[in-house]
């Protein structure tokens, strides 16, 4: 049919296709009343609209239309349809929505902008329309998605629809089109969509911003343009400016537990987490919020208490007797901050200095008892241990001779 049929520039395509569905039911029905057929379809349009289609169409268009509907009705009686849309529509309100987490991972892999709630709701409606077979909905947001959605988004929605059917035990294809051989001998007016190459369609869609301009340039209807893109699902019609210059391959956004450790436990900023994971700040922020993590305000510093593991700090300070200054240098923090964290964690603060600065590095790899670290604490600890080692010569001091002498030899030898 010429693309003006159904209203100016095809704006009434929803009503027009509903009328065709009613006429398809009338072909083999014992009733010739349009109202009876429309009742089976849920009364999508008034019966007067269907009547006006038949009376207003010129015979050059009405004759091939009725012939095509008759052949299609015969083929459906012989072969049937593999999809039970009535069952699907009865289940459409039972939690039919896209997997938000999976879609955010798709967004992160492709480097797209963080989806808004409005765009996610539009994808839910697209999934519902795909599920219920109502892709000719008049919702402008949905119709724009049908034409401009990225091929990766279409593949994602098809996978989501298939997953919903599998969970409900439905063994059907997600979408279905009748075989072209079912209708033959019809002189279709206008440009045959099959005669338009995918490359030509892609170039035309990239050249024009509006779907009406694309349809006019190709000589097809607006709904034909949407159907062409959906059937040839690999055609990209997205007009998107790159956000930033490519920075290498994108990685899958880490799971919520990993992000919680980076943001809360280690206290990294979202920007540093983005450099570490390869994900955008918007995607990381969305995943953290979905996991229940409160995002810090701008210029708000992470609590330093989360930057140090309690067991590690206890081992370094209380067991190995390292000083706060040495620990602060290793973790790149202020000495006062480390001391405050230890006091907050309930550690007993020493009144004397810890082991010498190079003691830990010198004895690295040795399994020393805590008493050895205690022996080398405080001022003049090295000289004191040297004096003790010289005095250990009597039998009653044999118990102290071996550990003290071996430790001193190791420490003195590495110095």
Q: What keyword list fits this structure?
A:
single chain, 415 residues, mainly alpha, 4 domains, 0% strand
Summed up, what is this model?
Helices cover 56% and strands 0% of the residues.
What does this structure look like?
With 415 residues, this protein is an all-alpha fold. It is built from 22 helices and no strands. It folds into four domains: 81 residues, no CATH class; 79 residues; 47 residues, no CATH class; 109 residues, no CATH class.
Indicate the topology.
Layout: H1 13-27, H2 34-40, H3 47-56, H4 59-79, H5 85-90, H6 100-110, H7 117-132, H8 140-148, H9 151-167, H10 198-207, H11 211-218, H12 222-231, H13 256-265, H14 270-277, H15 281-290, H16 310-319, H17 324-331, H18 335-344, H19 359-362, H20 370-375, H21 381-391, H22 398-414
Helix pairs in contact: 1-3, 1-4, 7-8, 7-9, 10-11, 17-18, 21-22
């Amino acid at each position: 049919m010429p693309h003006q049929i159904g209203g100016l520039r095809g704006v009434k395509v929803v009503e027009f296709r509903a009328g065709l569905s009613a006429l398809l039911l009338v072909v083999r029905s014992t009733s010739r009343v349009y109202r009876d057929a429309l009742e089976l379809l849920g009364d999508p349009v008034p019966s007067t609209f269907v009547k006006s289609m038949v009376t207003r169409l010129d015979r050059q268009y009405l004759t091939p239309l009725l012939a095509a509907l008759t052949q299609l009705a015969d083929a459906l009686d012989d072969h049937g349809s593999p999809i039970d849309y009535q069952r699907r529509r009865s289940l459409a309100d039972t939690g039919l929505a896209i997997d938000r987490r999976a879609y955010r991972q798709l967004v992160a892999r492709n480097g797209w902008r963080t989806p808004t709630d409005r765009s996610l709701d539009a994808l839910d409606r697209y999934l519902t329309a795909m599920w219920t077979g109502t892709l000719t909905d008049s919702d402008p947001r949905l119709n724009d998605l049908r034409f401009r959605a990225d091929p990766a988004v279409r593949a994602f929605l098809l996978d989501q629809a298939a997953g919903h059917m599998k969970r409900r035990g439905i063994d059907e294809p997600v979408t279905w089109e009748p075989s072209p051989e079912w209708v033959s001998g019809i002189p279709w007016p206008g440009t045959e969509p099959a005669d338009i190459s995918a490359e030509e369609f892609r170039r035309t869609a990239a050249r024009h911003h509006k779907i009406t301009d694309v349809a006019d340039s190709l000589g097809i209807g607006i709904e034909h343009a949407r159907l062409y893109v959906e059937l040839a699902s690999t055609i990209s019609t997205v007009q998107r400016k790159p956000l930033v210059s490519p920075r290498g391959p994108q990685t899958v956004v880490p799971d919520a537990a990993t992000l919680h450790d980076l943001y809360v436990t280690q206290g990294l900023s979202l920007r540093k987490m983005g450099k570490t994971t390869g994900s955008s700040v918007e995607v990381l922020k969305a995943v953290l919020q979905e996991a229940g993590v409160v995002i810090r305000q701008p210029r708000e510093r992470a609590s330093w208490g989360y930057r140090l593991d309690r067991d590690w700090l206890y081992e370094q300070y209380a067991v190995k007797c390292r000083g706060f200054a040495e620990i602060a240098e290793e973790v790149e923090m202020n000495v006062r901050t480390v001391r405050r964290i230890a006091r907050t964690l309930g550690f007993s603060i020493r009144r004397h200095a810890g082991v010498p600065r190079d003691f830990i590095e010198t004895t690295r790899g040795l399994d020393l008892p805590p008493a050895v670290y205690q022996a080398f604490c405080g001022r003049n600890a090295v000289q004191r241990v040297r004096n003790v080692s010289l005095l250990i010569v009597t039998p009653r001091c044999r118990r102290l001779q071996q550990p003290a002498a071996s430790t001193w030899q190791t420490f003195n030898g590495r110095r």
